[in-house]
Amino acid sequence: MALLPAGCGQELRAMIIKPKVRGFVCVTAHPTGCARHVQQQIEYVKAKGPVRGGPRNVLVIGASTGYGLASRIVSAFGSGAATLGVFFERPPAEGKPATPGWYNTAALAAAAQREGLFAASLNGDAFSDELKARAIDIIRTDMGPLDLVVYSLAAPRRTDPVDGQTYRSTLKPIGAPFTANNLDTDRKVIAPITLEPATEEEIRGTVKVMGGEDWERWLEQLEAAGLLGEGCLSVAYDYVGPEVTWPVYHYGTIGRAKQHLRETARRLDALLKLKRGAAFISVNKAVVTQASSAIPVVPLYISILFKVMKAAGLHEDCIHQIDRLFRTRLYHGSALVFDDEGRVRMDDWEMRPDIQRQVKEIWPAVTTETIDALTDFAGYQENFLQLFGFGLPGVDYAAEVDPEVPIPGLRT
Ligand code: NAD
Fold first, then answer.
1. Could you tell me if 94 and 393 are in contact, meaning their C-beta atoms sit under 8 angstroms apart?
2. What pLDDT was estimated at residue 335?
3. What is the pTM of this model?
4. Is 10 a residue whose pLDDT tops 50?
5. How many CB atoms within 10 Å of residue 231?
6. More confident residue, 24 or 218
7. Number of the ligand 1 atom closest to the C-alpha atom of 153
8. End-to-end C-alpha distance for the chain, whole angstroms
9. 38 by DSSP, 3-state: which?
10. Distance 68 CA to ligand 1 centre (A)
């Protein structure tokens, strides 16, 4: 680490930042790499031209990484929207890099500023009423009624403002143990894993954290403040996936939470219908994010899926999914098309019978020795490192970089 010349009485620390992977997380992030990653996503959206009839005033809850970040990018750079992004990220401190969502947001906000787009950000606990009140204040003062609210949180815990208790979410099967092949992405080893079933308390905790309660609280408080505009849409994200993951996902604790999210969507839809708007769930495809890399069995499935979907010319990452969601579904000029459970299906390509048949054929044959031949683990790993700003083309990773990057438009 070296000291850069002091500016305004402040010493800036520059350092070489390398990936430090611990299990399914990387504990470092590269500011320049994250900025490059965000810029690539912005360029992808801009190259497609404006989203006609897109939103003008957007709140994204969970806006700094994954699907929420992509939603904010498409809103701002595809639709020219003013955005407020809410997230929970660790800022840089004492020479330690921030978490990637901090750097992503810094890059997004700087790009928005260059284009004259309003982009305010709030870093804090979205589950708290205090943060909701601060968001409402910003929306009332600087934005006006919203026409899109995206709910894209993935969190390990939530303190319920009503009972003051902290609940934890778990990723476990319900009713019976589940054994399946699991890929240890850090060690590149495939071995069976047995997950014990969740207790009632763990199921309840996961529903409290990842269900729809907080989404509903956001919309109720925005409605009470008169900040849901005419025609306002609100979307939350869900995942279904193939049978091989159902015991841990669809029928597991997280699936129970998503069921609650779907029930909530129906209530919120009734609320927004009064304004000729709508609330609904979009089922998105499996992608590599910080949230999905923590789910047992899923990284192996994603590695196989990537191989099959790339070969079919159907590969998509968060930005491709959300860009397609906006352009072909939400702002397409025609009525939204739902499945029989009232959900928009952006996992349509992933769930195509020909894609799933191939995944199913490959699944039992994959071993530690055949990972590279039968799956796109290299693509998985590349994606994973890029989440933290590593492995981006055109970034000099041998150069020292200042981890202290401010977020323009960050409200305190
Ligand atoms: P992610 O981990 O990339 O993003 C989570 C976001 O939530 C980040 O912006 C983070 O800062 C924010 N956050 C977490 N706790 C917070 C808190 N207390 N207060 C404020 N912000 C907080 O996750 P993701 O994979 O993009 O998931 C987003 C949604 O999409 C989830 O509902 C997930 O189930 C769904 N989904 C994900 C996939 C997938 O494959 N990753 C597929 C389909 C649907």
1. no
2. 86
3. 0.96
4. no
5. 14
6. 218
7. 7
8. 29
9. helix
10. 7
Could you tell me if 44 and 131 are in contact, meaning their C-beta atoms sit under 8 angstroms apart?
A: no
Distance of CA 90 to the CA centre of its chain: 16
Choose among 86, 88, 60: nearest CA to 75.
60
pLDDT at 279 over 80: yes
- Give the containing element (helix H, strand E) for 319: helix 318-325
Q: Give the C-alpha separation, 189 to 372, whole Å.
A: 11
Active site residues: 249
Rounded distance from Cα 151 to ligand 1 centre (Å): 9
Write the CA distances from 92 to 14, 31, 101, 119, 219, integer angstroms: 12, 10, 11, 21, 32
73 vs 107: CA distance, rounded Å: 11
DSSP string of 175-236, one letter each residue: SS-EEEEEEETTTTEEEEEEEPPPPHHHHHHHHHHHSSHHHHHHHHHHHHTT-EEEEEEEEE
* Three-state DSSP state, 151: strand
Q: pLDDT tens digits for 240-275? A: 999 999 999 999 999 999 999 999 999 999 999 999
Strands 119-123 and 410-411: what pairing? parallel
Q: Length of the chain, please?
A: 412
Name residue, tokens 């240890």. Answer: 184
Q: Which atom of ligand 1 is nearest to the CA of 210?
A: 32
Gap between the Cα atoms of 389 and 39, Å rounded: 12
Compute the distance between CA of residue 157 and CA of residue 343 in angstroms, rounded to an integer.
Answer: 26
Are the CB atoms for 147 and 56 separated by under 8 Å?
Answer: yes
Counting from 1 in the atom list of ligand 1, the atom nearest the Cα of 318 is 26
Among 61, 237, 283, residue to substitute to test ligand 1 (most atoms within 8 Å of Cβ): 237
Exposure string for 177-201, b = 16+ CB within 10 A, e = fewer: ebebbbbebeeeebeebebebbeee
Ligand 1 centroid, distance to 292 Cα (angstroms): 9
What CA–CA distances, in Å, run from 252 to 13, 200, 299, 319?
A: 45, 12, 17, 27
